[in-house]
Design goal:
mainly beta, Immunoglobulin-like, five-stranded antiparallel sheet, 1 helix
Length: 709
C-alpha cells in the first residue's frame, strides 16, 4: 500500500504465515515516527510521481526549444520526493512510446540534464538535451517509479535557412542535370551532427511547369556543423531558380529564396542529319549535354532558324521565322541525346538550333544544318519548246517546299549544257523561267519558258536560296523550220542568183529565235544537197522567231533546198518548191583549143558564173571523160584534159549540176591530134625519156575542118 504525506497509516488485513517479524519505522507529516512489526512477506510503497505542468520561465513557448539543448524546464506535480535524502530523479522526454525509434533522433528518448528537486515533492527543474523533433512529452522517474507522460508537449525550434553556397559551383548555377554537386545550407536549428539526426532538404521553383516545376529532394543530406550547416548533393533534375528548405526532426524551414540554385542550361554539340526534307518528315537527333532525364514530364522544345539575316520581304515567314521541331524527347539515360520525330515544313540553309529544357534555353548551336536543296527528277515536255517562250514546263522532284505559300517562290534557270555540239553563245546563256510556282507540295513546280534557243537544255531550281544540281533530264527548244524564201531586195531573182554572192534573201519559218539582244543569236542558212551549194553569209534574225535575212555567198547549183541552223539545231530540208538556184555557167572561149590526144593538155575555159574555188560540182568533160580541175574562179576554169581520140571534139562544161551555155558553138571546139615518129615505141606519154644518138623529126598531122558557125 502506498503512503501519502500527512495521512494516518492504517494496516489492516495483514496475514503472514512467517513468524519472522520486521520492525518498520513510518514517518508521516508532520514528523511522527511510529514503529510496528510486520512479517517479511508483506511490503509497502509510495505513490508514483505525477506530472501536472511543464513550464519554462525563459522560453516564450515550449515549442521553441533550442536544438543545442540547455533550456531550463520546470516540471510540477506530486510525489517527487523530499529535498533531503538524495532522491534519485531521472527525467526524459520523447514522442509517444509506440513511435520511438532509436535510429532516428527525432524519435529517440531524450534524457534531460541536471534535473534537481527544487520544491520537495512537487517541483523538479531540468535542462533539455541537444535534439530535434516535436510532440515531445515528459516522464519522470523517482526511486525507480515512473510517472505517466505529461499532457503538455514540447518541440524543438524548426530549422531556418539563411544562405546557400557550393564549393563546386560558387555561382549556384551550372549543376549537371544528371545530379551531383554539393549545396551547403547555412542556417539555425539543424540539430547535432550525428548520424541518427536524419535531416533532409528540398528545392522548388513553383513558377516552372513539368519536371522543372516539381519538388526535388537533395541527396545524402547531413549536418556538418552542429545546428548551423548541412550539406546535400543535387538530385537529377532540370530547371532554374530553385528555392531551398530544410527539414529537421520532421519540421520544415522556411523556403529560402535569397539565393537559388539552377541546373546547367542545355548545350548542343552535334545535330544530325545534315539535311532535312522540306516536308517536315525528317527525324532529328541532337547530341549534347544537360538535356535532363528521359521522363514524360521533361518537356523539351527544339527550335531553329537561319543564322544570317534574310530578306523577310522577299522570303517571308517560311524562311525567316523560328520553327519548332515536333514530338521531341530525351532518349537514353545519359541526358545527352534528344530525338525529334519530325522537323517543321520549311526551306533554307544555315539553320542554327536552340533547345529549351526546364525553362532554360541553350546558346545557339555552333553547328548548323539545312533543308535539303531541291532536286529535279524529270521534266515535261522534253522537247519542242517554242523559241518565243511562254510555254508551260513542269518539273518533278523533291524538296521544292510547300505549295500555295506566297513566300516560297521557286527560281528556275536553264541553258544548253556545256560541251553540247554546235551550241551557240545564246544557247549557252542562262535563261530565267517566269511565273514559277510550286503546284504540288514539295514535288512539283510549274514555270513558263523564256525566249531562247538550243537543245540539251538542263535546268536548275533554287528554293530558299539553295540551288539544285543540273538536271539529268533535258529538254529542248523546237528545231527551226523553213517554210519559205523571199527576195530581200529589188532585182534579186531567187532562181537566178549571182554565183559571186552578195544578194539579199529572206528565209521565213518558225523557231528562229530572238532578234538582237545582249548575246547575238547566231543563225545560219545552208542550201544545197551537201555536195552542191554553200552557206549564206551574214545571216541574222530580221523578224523575231519567223524570218532570217542573209547575204548570199559565192556558189553554184540549181534547185538548192534550204536548211536553217539555230542554237546548234538544224531544220529539216525545206519542202519541194522552197529552193533557190544560181545562174547557170556561160562559156565564152577555150584556150588552147587543140592538143595531144594523149591528154594532159592544160586548157583554160573562160566565161562567167563559174563560182569560185569553194564551189563544188564543177566538171569539164571531153568525150564524156572528166578533166582534172586545177582551179576555178568566177570567170575561168583551168583543167587538164583527159586522153581522147585524135579528132575534133566539143568540150562540155557543167557547174553545180547546170550545163553551160555558150557564146557560140565553136567556143568549146577542141582539136585533138595524134603525135607521129615517136621512138622508143613505149615510154612516157610526155617526154622525159630520149635515147642518145637518135634524132627524129616530129611533125603534126592536123585535121582541118572548114566548117564555121
Amino acid at each position: 500500500m502506498p503512503f501519502a504525506r500527512g495521512k494516518a497509516a492504517v494496516l489492516t488485513g495483514m496475514s503472514c504465515r512467517s513468524h519472522t517479524a520486521l520492525k518498520v519505522k513510518l514517518t508521516f507529516y508532520p514528523t511522527m515516527p511510529i514503529y510496528f512489526v510486520r512479517p517479511r512477506c508483506c511490503a509497502a510503497r509510495y505513490f508514483a510521481p505525477v506530472i501536472s505542468t511543464v513550464t519554462s520561465s525563459l522560453l516564450a513557448s515550449l515549442q521553441e526549444l533550442s536544438t543545442s539543448g540547455g533550456d531550463r524546464i520546470t516540471l510540477t506535480g506530486d510525489y517527487f520526493g523530499p529535498l533531503k535524502g538524495g532522491t534519485a530523479i531521472n527525467a526524459n522526454y520523447s514522442v509517444i512510446s509506440s513511435s520511438i525509434d532509436p535510429s532516428y533522433l527525432a524519435l529517440s528518448v531524450f534524457r534531460a540534464d541536471f534535473c534537481n528537486l527544487t520544491k520537495a515533492h512537487v517541483e523538479v527543474v531540468c535542462a533539455t538535451a541537444a535534439g530535434v523533433g516535436t510532440n515531445l512529452r515528459w516522464t519522470i522517474a523517482v526511486a525507480d517509479q515512473a510517472s505517466g507522460t505529461s499532457d503538455t508537449s514540447m518541440a524543438y525550434l524548426p530549422p531556418t535557412v539563411t544562405d546557400l553556397s557550393s564549393t563546386m559551383h560558387p555561382s549556384l548555377s551550372g549543376f549537371r542535370t544528371i545530379g551531383g554537386g554539393d549545396v551547403v545550407i547555412t542556417g539555425t536549428n539543424f540539430g547535432p551532427a550525428r548520424d541518427i539526426n536524419q535531416v533532409s532538404a528540398s528545392y522548388l521553383n513553383s513558377d516552372l511547369s513539368g519536371l522543372a516545376g516539381e519538388t526535388y529532394s537533395g541527396i545524402s543530406c547531413e549536418v556538418k556543423k552542429v545546428d548551423t550547416e548541412m550539406i546535400c548533393e543535387m538530385a537529377v533534375g532540370v530547371g532554374s531558380g530553385h528555392g531551398w528548405l530544410a527539414t529537421v526532426g520532421g519540421q520544415a524551414s522556411n523556403r529560402f529564396s535569397g539565393r537559388t540554385t539552377s541546373y546547367a542550361a542545355p548545350n548542343i554539340t552535334v545535330i544530325s542529319p545534315n539535311e532535312m526534307n522540306t516536308d517536315g518528315s525528317t527525324s532529328i537527333t541532337l547530341t549534347g549535354e544537360d538535356f535532363g532525364p528521359n521522363d514524360a514530364d521533361n518537356f523539351v522544345v527544339v527550335t531553329y532558324r537561319p543564322v544570317t539575316k534574310t530578306d523577310a520581304g522577299r522570303y517571308g515567314e517560311l524562311m525567316t521565322s523560328t520553327k519548332t521541331a515536333v514530338r521531341c524527347f530525351v532518349e537514353g539515360s545519359d541526358h545527352d541525346r534528344i530525338v525529334c520525330d519530325g522537323s517543321a515544313v520549311g526551306i533554307g540553309s544555315g539553320l542554327a538550333f536552340h533547345v529549351v529544357v526546364g525553362g532554360q534555353k541553350s546558346n545557339r548551336s555552333s553547328v548548323t544544318i539545312a533543308y535539303a536543296p531541291p532536286s529535279i527528277a524529270n521534266l515535261v515536255p522534253l522537247k519542242g519548246l517554242a523559241t518565243s517562250g511562254g510555254e508551260a514546263i513542269t518539273l518533278t522532284g523533291t524538296n521544292f517546299g510547300p505549295a500555295n505559300e506566297s513566300s516560297n517562290i521557286p527560281e528556275v534557270r536553264y541553258k544548253t549544257a556545256s560541251g553540247t555540239s554546235g551550241a551557240t553563245p545564246l544557247a549557252l546563256l542562262f535563261k530565267n523561267a517566269t511565273r514559277c510556282s510550286v503546284t504540288e507540295d514539295h514535288i512539283q513546280i510549274t514555270c513558263f519558258t523564256a525566249v531562247g534557243v538550243g537543245r540539251n537544255v538542263r535546268l536548275l531550281v533554287t528554293i530558299g536560296k539553295q540551288e539544285s544540281t543540273q538536271s539529268s533530264a533535258a529538254t529542248s527548244y523546237a528545231e527551226p523550220s523553213v517554210t519559205g524564201v523571199v527576195v530581200g531586195e529589188a532585182g534579186v531573182n531567187l532562181r537566178n542568183l549571182l554565183t559571186v554572192g552578195g544578194e539579199n534573201i529572206t528565209v521565213v519559218g518558225t523557231n528562229f529565235g530572238p532578234r538582237g539582244g545582249a548575246i547575238y543569236n547566231d543563225v545560219a542558212i545552208a542550201y544545197g544537197d551537201g555536195s552542191l551549194g554553200s552557206n549564206e553569209s551574214d545571216c541574222k534574225v530580221s523578224v523575231a522567231h519567223t524570218a532570217i535575212s542573209c547575204t548570199t555567198s559565192a556558189g553554184v547549183g540549181a534547185n538548192l533546198s534550204l536548211i536553217a541552223t539555230v542554237g546548234g539545231q538544224r531544220s529539216d530540208i525545206s519542202a519541194a518548191g522552197i529552193h533557190v538556184s544560181y545562174r547557170p555557167p556561160f562559156v565564152v572561149s577555150m584556150n588552147p583549143n587543140s592538143g595531144s590526144s594523149l591528154g594532159d593538155t592544160e586548157v583554160t575555159v573562160s566565161g562567167m558564173y563559174f563560182g569560185n574555188s569553194n564551189a563544188r560540182g564543177t566538171d569539164v568533160f571531153l568525150d564524156g571523160n572528166a578533166s582534172k580541175i586545177k582551179s576555178v574562179s568566177e570567170t575561168a576554169i583551168i583543167v587538164e584534159l583527159p586522153r581522147s581520140t585524135a579528132s575534133l571534139h566539143y568540150v562540155a562544161v557543167s557547174v553545180g549540176g547546170q550545163y553551160a551555155k555558150y557564146s557560140r558553138k565553136s567556143a568549146t571546139r577542141y582539136y585533138a591530134y595524134r603525135p607521129v615518129g615517136l621512138t622508143p615505141g613505149s615510154g612516157p606519154v610526155r617526154g622525159g625519156d630520149c635515147r642518145q644518138g637518135e634524132r627524129q623529126i616530129f611533125f603534126q598531122q592536123f585535121i582541118y575542118w572548114s566548117a564555121y558557125w
